[in-house]
Amino acid sequence: MTRTQEIEQQVTELRRLQAESWPAGVPHEINYRKGQVPLSQYVRAEAKARPDAAMIHYYGCTLSWGEVDALSDRFAGLLQARGVGAGDRVAVMMGNCPQFVICFWGIMKLGAVLVPVNPMFKAIELAYQLNDSGAETLVFQDDLAPLVAQVLDDTPVQRLFATGAAEMAGTSGPVPRPEGMGMAPQADGVERLLAALDSADPFTGPDCADLDAVAALNYTGGTTGMPKGCVHTHGDMLYTAASYCGPAMPDSGADDVIVNFFPLFWIAGENFGILAPAYTGAAVSLLHRWDAVGWMAAVAEHRASITTLLVDNAVEVMRHKEAGNYDLTSLGTTSVCSFVKKLGAAFRTEWRELTGSTMVEAAYGMTESHTCDTFTVGMQNDDYDLAQQPVFVGLPVVGTDIIICDFETGALKPLGETGEICIRSPAVLKSYWNKPDETAHAIRDGWLHTGDIGMVNERGFVHYLGRRKEMLKVNGMPVFPAEIEMLLGRHPAVLGSGVIGRKDDAKGEVPVAFIHLDPEQAKDLDADTLRAWCREQMSSFKIPEIRLVDGLPMTATGKVKKEELAALL
Question: Does the pTM of the predicted model rise above 0.85?
Fold first, then answer.
């Protein structure tokens, strides 16, 4: 039997097992709400059917579907008038605001290519991404003007538009603005985006209708070198929205409101804050950035039913002195991501008592696969999902297959054995931008080799164990930092942790846990006491050295910067 035949045989068996494990009430097929067309046409359809219905809530300002459709037409027309056409890259560098959404849909309609840029970048990072993508147009937030000016002459950028984070906010409202939002002066000598939209002729089409056309270059985080642009198509966006919204929010629609603070430049923020609303027809209450009071106020004001949080955010809400002042009971299922603090039974119970909603792990995924490859909704009876923790990420979404292969040989692993997670999905990147060798290494025989360690068990459930480069070998035994972090997260005083390895002459490596404690619950708790607790919770070879810290270095997307922890060693 050839390797390909062996893989297809296991895939057939996995699909059978996963069908048997499929949760009741979760659709087992994709029903594209408005057909298999680019999501910009979903926006047009909603605007035509419900032009005055709310699409975006933003600090006292509400934009309707009709308004966003018209404004994005104007942005597409503006770009077209300035010489931008299909396939041209347009960089957008700003925090969450309605202007980002308007630019997004204008770029999609025109058939240009979105290049979202992290507004926390420094000069070398910004210059690299602009040069790598070849973007000749840049829309940016006013407070980034000094940074843009610093790199502009060394990039291909020819057209600049600037806007302010508060420029489309209301003058007042029940959702408070985060501190400092929109305080920067307007960028000098740069065309104002909103003024340009006012005078632009609307794009008259035809809209990009090719699902195979490139829609975005979503750059990876650069953990293995400089970031790489993941080439994603309109079809990738549609499939991700349809395959994930089906199980995660099956009944969502025009009466629902999503609260999103995830950065829109991050692919998870794009999925939850832009694509999911367009696909479902739900409105989105957009927060410029995370703020516990702002989030609670948004849920209460808009009777929001859908949200995605980091577990850390949920804990902050539950422990917040004002939590009792807001009605959060409109929430349905609450999706959470376990980056620093991990989902556990105690947090789930506490959240349910506060909101009536059940916290579930959101998904396994990565930028290369458009992030939403699995789901866990419907697997919470008797906390089944938590009993499988610390590595349970559920079942693949409809249309996605996940297998485990040997890192070195590529040989297929039997069910129950660990190895490299490999994904086959309609949303897998089509290539790395201008990097054919890295593309060929990552995508082999139609399978994305993720570099992540995982396991698929005998029922077809997927387990995630971390990045291969993070795996430690302690006395020859594999130790996964994500597992230790998950176990540490069960301690009520641990606010967050990051685990890395330290070279050791006797053991090869030893795990070192940098731990941020809650001062309210950490009285009389020191490193020795915490290490003693670890001895009761984990195998002896997994017990980490403990380093207590006042805080953890974090990325903009809520992950611990492991390289900075390494510097602390």
Answer: yes
